[in-house]
Write a structure and sequence with these properties.
about 550 residues; mainly alpha; Helicase, Ruva Protein, domain 3; 28 helices; globular
């Protein structure tokens, strides 16, 4: 019999060198009166020695698996014993594991009657006079048999837990292994210190787990179907665009003047222009009523560069030159272009310093500031020029920018004509109250004026507030329909998020309308825009009436 004085050296070399399945494992080798930590140390050494012996003798795969199983069971028992109140079960586990035959199957646990768990070895030899479980039971009136049955049930639950783990390891699919292990966690018996689950409760937990698994599978299936649907729609749109490119190039653009107002062409236009011919269509739709040539662009670009060069000269010389140009103060705005360019589509990274279009954007904006000194450069123009540069070359972008800004609505905003700007805001209020009176009243109650969001929407043609691809489609239809489409788009956005906006307070609503969610769907948005029936005639009537009202107002 081994005692507390037993060490690793006391184990005979013959015992260590024995092949697998010959290590003495009966309980006579262990002193059950030894303290619990000592017994654990000895048990661990026996398993380590056995593992080392297996490797040296090249044991079969089945034998090594049996050792791993027993080692895992021992670790599980040790962890469980740490959580037991008083630690009174730990050595019973040790004795049970050591007495188990090495070639025993996990799925065939030993008989409960064959496992002697009546000894409370943790208390038997820890200190003289310390009562064990049997003694405690006899003194406090507890039935000794109930204590033994409780320990045997605990040992049985360990075997069942290992059976579940062994089943999980047999699976070939990581997903199946994950599900089995999760099931094992859900069905794991409670700690010894808590009451054992009833069959009803276990059935309930199993049903809840199966329900969670089914819900997760259904969610994954829905997401997969959604992705497949999106891919199909994307492929369908790409095919439609590829077919429309041919139609635009062969049938529409060669006869632009006669085909522009064709009903079929207008319908194709509504659904968006193919990116490959977008720049060409935009140039024809915007036109060049200002008769700007490429040479004129080069002249004003040279003037802008000279302006910047003068700025870098010494102060005395610069002051002298500036005095001679006192009448064109707005040309000084070329000096602040670089401040705004870096904030233009930062997510693209092509208009920032070092980007491929950094200098081109500077050239277009600086040339325009010198071309229209009465307007100069105004914040928001950089987004207009950037979108144009994404679809055409530099000189064409300058021509289109100049003609675009000369349109009545944009010219009023960029020249900061207060009367006309107020008139446009009133036009928007009229249509807003007409189509969405409840939401309009909500905006009024929060004192959220149109100038807090409509100014940015119009000046940038929605290119800063909407995703770029949707903004380009807005540009497509704007060049088809004119200024009234800017107000239809604004009302379409409000219609799309109508119910959400009604629930928002001032801060959230102001933030929302200045940064529309990037997840907005293009077709869904345009379906709401199509419901806003603002004809050109109706728009002009309301605008004329509001301009007359503003002219009668005394100047502020």
């Amino acid at each position: 019999m081994l005692s507390d004085d037993v060490t690793s050296e006391s184990i005979s070399p013959d015992t260590k060198s024995e092949p697998p399945n010959t290590i003495p494992m009966d309980e006579t080798q262990l002193d059950f009166n030894a303290p619990s930590p000592r017994t654990h140390a000895l048990t661990s050494e026996i398993f380590l020695t056995k593992s080392h012996s297996d490797k040296e003798n090249h044991a079969t795969e089945t034998e090594r698996d049996a050792v791993d199983e027993r080692t895992n069971v021992d670790a599980l028992a040790a962890n469980e014993s740490m959580s037991c109140v008083g630690g009174g079960l730990d050595q019973d586990y040790d004795s049970a594991f050591i007495e188990t035959p090495e070639n025993a199957s996990i799925s065939e646990p030993p008989s409960l009657d064959a496992i002697d768990l009546s000894r409370d070895s943790s208390a038997a030899g820890s200190e003289p006079g310390t009562p064990n479980d049997a003694e405690k039971a006899s003194t406090d009136g507890t039935d000794i048999d109930s204590v033994i049955v409780t320990k045997r049930k605990t040992w049985w639950r360990f075997w069942k837990g290992k059976e579940v783990d062994a089943t999980a390891r047999k699976g070939h699919s990581p997903r199946a292994e994950q599900l089995v292990s999760t099931t094992g966690l859900l069905m794991e018996a409670r700690p010894v210190s808590l009451p054992v689950k009833s069959e009803k409760e276990e059935r309930k937990h199993r049903a809840e787990y199966e329900q969670m698994i089914q819900q997760a599978k259904k969610k994954e299936q829905r997401e997969l179907e959604k992705q497949i649907k999106q891919r199909r729609e994307k492929c369908k749109k790409e095919d439609e665009l590829a077919n429309s490119v041919s139609t635009w190039k062969t049938d529409i653009l060669p006869t632009w003047d006669t085909m522009r107002n064709n009903k079929a062409v207008l319908d194709m236009w509504w659904h968006g222009l193919p990116p490959s011919i977008r720049g060409t269509v935009w140039k024809r739709a915007i036109g060049n009523g200002l008769q700007i040539t490429e040479d004129l662009y080069e002249i004003f670009l040279s003037r802008a560069r000279e302006k910047l060069r003068i700025k870098k000269l010494n102060r005395e010389f610069s002051t002298e030159i500036e005095t001679s140009l006192r009448g064109i103060d707005h040309e000084k705005s070329v000096e602040v272009v670089h401040l705004d360019v870096s904030r233009t589509f930062p997510q693209l990274g092509i208009f920032q310093e070092g980007g491929p279009m950094f200098q081109s954007l500077h050239d277009v904006l600086e040339a325009y500031a010198c071309y229209r000194p009465d307007v100069g450069y105004v914040q928001g123009m950089s987004f207009l020029a950037a979108v144009l540069l994404l679809n055409m070359d530099v000189s064409d972008a300058f021509v289109c920018l100049a003609n675009l800004v000369s349109r009545p609505c944009h010219l009023a905003f960029f020249r900061v004509d207060e009367q006309k700007i107020s008139a446009y805001f009133e036009v928007f209020k009229v249509f807003f109250n007409q189509y969405f009176p409840k939401l309009y009243a909500h905006f009024v109650s929060l004192n959220l004026a149109p100038n807090m969001f409509l100014l940015d929407w119009i000046c940038t043609l929605y290119s800063r507030s909407l995703p770029l691809d949707i903004a380009c489609r807005v540009w497509d239809v704007y060049f088809r329909d004119g200024d009234e489409f800017l107000f239809k788009t604004a009302l379409g956005i409000l219609s799309l998020f109508h119910s959400q906006m009604l629930e928002m307070e001032f801060i959230d609503l102001a933030r929302f309308v200045t940064r529309i969610p990037q997840t907005v769907n293009s077709d869904e948005l345009f379906s709401h825009i199509a419901r806003v029936n603002i004809t050109t005639k109706r728009y002009e009537q309301v605008l004329t009436a509001q301009l007359a009202v503003q002219q009668q107002q005394p100047p502020s």
